[in-house]
Amino acid sequence: MVGGGVFTPDPAAGLVFARRFASRGWMTYSVISSLATFVLTVPPWGEDSAGLRFAAGAVLISAWLAALSVRLGRRRSGRSGA
Predict the structure, then answer these.
(1) Distance between CA 13 and CA 15 in Å, rounded?
(2) What is the pTM of this model?
(3) What are the tens digits of pLDDT across the range 25-66?
(4) 82 in any annotated domain
(5) In a domain, 70, yes or no
(6) 56-67 b/e with 16+ CB inside 10 Å = b?
């Protein structure tokens, strides 16, 4: 259950940013990444798969954060980040 407290803010941020994006692709990517990370890290499944689920959730949300950073950086510098 520790994963819920650690990983919950990142998926929540994904849902907040999903509302901000006008591009349907980015909105969909944000929602899917957020919900998948939440599903992978929060439910109390067997302990034997917990490490694998947390790793998958961390990779998924880290990829979303990296893509978001690139997009916002391009937008700030004046280039299109669509």
Answers:
(1) 5
(2) 0.67
(3) 888 888 888 888 888 877 666 677 778 888 888 888 889 889
(4) no
(5) yes
(6) ebbebbeebeee
